[in-house]
Design a protein that fits this description.
Strand content: 25-35%
Mean pLDDT: 88
CATH architecture of the largest domain: 3-Layer(aba) Sandwich
Structural class: alpha+beta
Radius of gyration: 24 Å
CATH topology of the largest domain: Rossmann fold
Helix content: 10-25%
Low-confidence stretches: 1-11, 389-395
CATH superfamily of the largest domain: P-loop containing nucleotide triphosphate hydrolases
Number of domains: 2
Shape: elongated
Bound molecules: adenosine-5'-triphosphate
Number of strands: 21
CATH class of the largest domain: Alpha Beta
Strand order of the largest sheet: 6-7-8-3-9-10
Distance between the termini: 17 Å
Order of helices and strands: EEEHEEEHHHEHEHEEHHEEEEEEEEEEEH
Length: 395
């Protein structure tokens, strides 16, 4: 596989001042001989919800810890609000971090936990009245105004997480850094908290830098996502850019489920690209903005929800249906092509031709604007369906 070129997307600087909240400037981090982060180079706008997403060990926590000041870059700089803070200790940086384990003070009440940051200020310490106003305002924002007198152990996991957020936000930092903060919560609570986090972030307008290995979580909350693998940022983009126009095969497979086929470019006519498959079929792809030239080996990606399954003999890829699983809103259809690649289609319960069953020969087809050409080649062995779960398991 060729190494994909990172595609940095300039941060939309929401405050109009032209100054990014966080700048990671050509940062590399070595632990001994091991390169944990390589040439990370991006800006995070004021008020942006920015996620760093990638499999375990890809360097996202190390990058976050360098922004927080818990780790020093080996080379490069960290800037906050345009100021180089590379040599500034963590407690003097205008950022706060929320960890997965909440780290609330168990002997203090909820109120005292939230007030802690304001009371322990060395300079510009607010009056007691002001502290009271701000603590109660934060408890309102995290929707726990009646829990001020409780101790952390009298709260559920989700409530503790909200208090940890209130405590980290009460000082109104330039950026809030969140390291897998929802990892300890069960699925339902995690989904609720994702929406709550987004609401709180929008209400306060504070920059959030969020670390996660959960692609759904990143897609739900983020304005932009940096997808990382093996210490490198592979792509930075909005959730829709990353999902629909991945810059590498890794990103295509890590975000959702991707059907991948090796093809070579035959002809390019304006926004129509004709490609040849390995079995001699030709497909036309519309609206693919990545630069393709005739003769180039690339990868055709089609998301499962864009594939249709019909009776054999229609235009498309000929395959045998190997499995069909009812998943509520969709039927997951698994098929193996005549070239041996496994593909997955998600079809609506009423979209499947009558009588089609596992074991039958079928045609998989898609609209010309449903395919995307990833500017990277794969071998025949790598053709088929790539799932985020597989990527996780492989690391
Ligand atoms: P996870 O999701 O598992 O937390 P991650 O993407 O956040 O993973 P990091 O914690 O940033 O990954 O670690 C990146 C790599 O650097 C890993 O291989 C890790 O073992 C290594 N690493 C991290 N901290 C240190 C350290 N203090 N000393 C040596 N190696 C380290």
């Amino acid at each position: 596989m060729t190494t994909p070129t990172p595609t940095p997307t300039p941060a939309p600087l929401a405050n109009g001042t032209g100054v990014a909240a966080v700048t990671v400037d050509a940062v590399t981090k070595h632990f001994g001989d091991y390169v944990a982060v390589e040439s990370a180079d991006f800006e995070i706008a004021q008020g942006e919800f920015f996620s760093m997403l990638g499999p375990s060990g890809c360097g996202k926590t190390t990058t976050l810890r360098m922004i927080a000041g818990f780790e020093q870059p080996t080379t490069g700089r960290i800037l906050l609000g345009g100021q180089d803070v590379s040599k500034v200790p963590p407690h003097q940086r205008d950022v706060n971090t929320v960890f997965q384990n909440y780290a609330l003070f168990p002997h203090m009440s909820v109120y005292d936990n939230v007030a802690f940051g304001l009371r322990s200020r060395r300079t510009k310490k607010p009056s007691n009245n002001e502290i009271d106003t701000r603590v109660r305002e934060m408890l309102e924002i995290v929707r726990l105004p009646d829990f001020a007198d409780r101790k952390p152990q009298q709260l559920s996991g989700g409530q503790q997480q909200r208090i940890a957020l209130a405590r980290a936000l009460v000082n109104r930092p330039t950026a809030l850094l969140l390291d897998e903060p929802l990892g300890a919560l069960d699925l339902k609570l995690r989904q609720n908290m994702q929406l709550e986090l987004k609401r709180i972030q929008q209400e306060l307008g504070i920059t959030f830098v969020f670390v996660t290995h959960d692609q759904e979580e990143a897609l739900t909350m983020s304005d932009r996502i940096a997808v990382m693998t093996q210490g490198r940022v592979d792509q930075i983009g909005t959730p829709t850019e990353i999902y629909h126009r991945p810059s590498s095969v890794f990103v295509a497979g890590f975000i959702g489920t991707a059907n991948l086929l090796p093809v070579s470019v035959n002809r390019v006519d304006a926004d129509l690209v004709t490609v040849d498959s390995r079995t001699g079929s030709q497909f036309v792809i519309r609206g693919n903005s990545s630069a393709c030239r005739p003769g180039q080996d690339v990868t055709l990606m089609i998301r499962p929800e864009r594939l249709s399954v019909s009776a054999a003999g229609n235009n498309g890829i000929q395959a045998t249906l190997t499995g069909m699983v009812f998943q509520g809103p969709v039927l997951r259809c698994e098929a193996v092509t005549t070239a041996g690649a496994s593909l997955v289609a998600h079809v609506g319960p009423h979209e499947l031709a009558e009588g089609v069953r596992p074991g039958h020969d079928v045609t998989l087809s898609w609209d010309s604007d449903a395919g995307f050409l990833v500017p990277e080649s794969i071998t025949a062995d790598q053709a088929g369906v790539t799932l985020a779960e597989d990527t996780e398991a492989a690391t």
